[in-house]
Design goal:
- This protein is of the alpha+beta class.
- The chain is 22% helix and 30% strand.
- It has six helices and twelve strands.
- The strands form three sheets. Strands 1-2-10-11-12 form a five-stranded antiparallel sheet, with no helix packed on it.
- It is elongated, with a radius of gyration of 25 Å.
- The N terminus is likely disordered.
Amino acid sequence: MDNVENIVSLEEYSVTYKPGIYFLGDPCYVIQGTELWDKACEDSGEFRAFNEFAIAPTMYGDGVYYDKYSGKEFGVDSASLGIVNLKYYHENENVAYPLEELGAVIEVNDYVKFTYDPDEYSFSFEIDGAAVFIPTNDENDEDEIDNSDNIDYDQLYAQVLYELREQNAPYWFNNDEVARIQELNLEFMEQKDMADII
């Protein structure tokens, strides 16, 4: 491993770095087109740690993954996530969004620890005691509804009132919408002759 003076500790799937300004997310947005990126890609598909830069693969490749604590989105275009000190930043004309929208730009005052779980394809970041946790192995987690607890009807009522009063969200159909719905449903409705009814 080259130039490791800023690594506080290195374990099999974990690395701790000294203070600095770092990007958490897909490192390709920061260093693609550099020798460091080329070196990282030599053994793609594995956890790799360098001086102020570490990378590991996601389970499902490219896409959007979420921090379990804050819900923040992390875009992925190189099938990997990691951490990189922004002193290595290399402008890339293919990156259309600010780094803050693609991941997280953080100022580290004490330390940042990046841990990768290769069995779960999960990414943990401990930043001066705060935490970010990005699992990449539960692609349908956002679609699942937790029915394990009782419904909080007071909260549900408050949410409905907020949507109606503050967001002006309609909860009914207007006459034109009702007519169109009925028109589209005609072929599925049973038509009875008046003689059959009487």
